[in-house]
Amino acid sequence: IEKSRETANPAAESSPRPGADKHQDKVTSEKKLCVKAAKEHSIPEDLNKVLENKVLEKVLDLSHVKLSVVEMTCLGDADSEGIVSKSVSSHSDLIPGVYEGGLKIWECTFDLIDYFSEAEIEFTNKTVLDLGCGAGLLGIVALRGKADSVHFQDYNSTVIDEITLPNVVANCIDDGSKMGSGKDRKASKPPSKRPRKSEGSPDMLNKCRFFSGEWSQVSQLLSSTKAFPKYDIILTSETIYNPDYYSALHDTLAQLLDKNGRVYLASKVHYFGVGGGTYLFEKFIEEKNVFRTSIIKTIDQGLQRCIMEIAFKDSC
Ligand code: SAM
Fold first, then answer.
1. Which of 155, 211, 214 to mutate to test the pocket of ligand 1 (most atoms within 8 A of CB)?
2. Taking Cα atoms as reference points, which of 314, 248, 238, 302 lies closest to residue 276?
3. 154 within ligand 1 shell (Cβ under 6 A)
4. Pocket test for ligand 1, best of 4, 35, 98, 100 (most atoms within 8 A of CB)
5. CATH code given to domain 4-312
6. Whose CA is nearest to atom 2 of ligand 1?
7. Alpha-carbon gap, residue 97 to 116, rounded angstroms
8. What is the reported pLDDT for 226?
């Protein structure tokens, strides 16, 4: 995983570029035809396996929460679904089909995490969805904030298996300790045996579910689940770059958000080369007349970015 806060060149890398650049035309036309089916990913029994071949690193510059991030080791001749390298240009070669940018952590994720802390957003007992999660840092912060449940969604199943799940597992284990098997997850250690100052706990994994697929498909899958609870909070970062997806995104939010729920959306004001951005999405939402929006924070360093709150028009 790259941490864009450290490495991004905003001018060159402001926009997720789905698919390989050299095949852009082909990818764009395939994209219109291709609606990726939704799938739930189960949490493997042996959690140690999830972290095999992964390099863990602490993100140090988040003031209020220490998160681990998983980096994949590049083994060279890995199979096409397996390995994530650190080079941006090769990401798309490592995922078959359309790739939507989930292998790297985009800078608006950090904006949103900063905002949670400044605004003291309360996750306790909330049902949360990290939509277009990539590495899943937003959901992990919610999990650590004692959310009741956190669901993670990414377009690409490779991202869920190789990045999101390992990252959540890494953040649910205690520093330096090894995980037990999935079966042990419910049997938590007595408090006296738990390492002090630990923010993670294997029990947190029981609150998580993982989904891949295109938004409308995931939304259908979730809504068809018996006793599906709508989400109190939907978190989404750098997901409005492509106006072609606005309709699916809007309808997914409308279908999955609780009537009094809130969406926190972080985005660049404009995505060069792709065309989407904050104001275009706001306009789209306004025209649909289902939600109200407000820009709750603007960030002016580098490329201008915003955090938007979205709620149903008739919500309290
Ligand atoms: N939220 C992460 C971050 O900020 O680091 C990842 C952002 S990445 C640029 C965009 C994410 O949105 C991808 O992870 C992708 O899975 C998701 N996404 C974009 N378009 C999608 C679509 N039409 N259906 C489902 N997921 C989509």
1. 155
2. 238
3. yes
4. 100
5. 3.40.50.150
6. 134
7. 34
8. 80
The predicted structure's pLDDT at residue 255: 97
pLDDT at 80: 34
Distance CA 127, CA 59 (A): 25
Q: Please give the Cα distance from 226 to 275 (Å, whole number).
A: 38
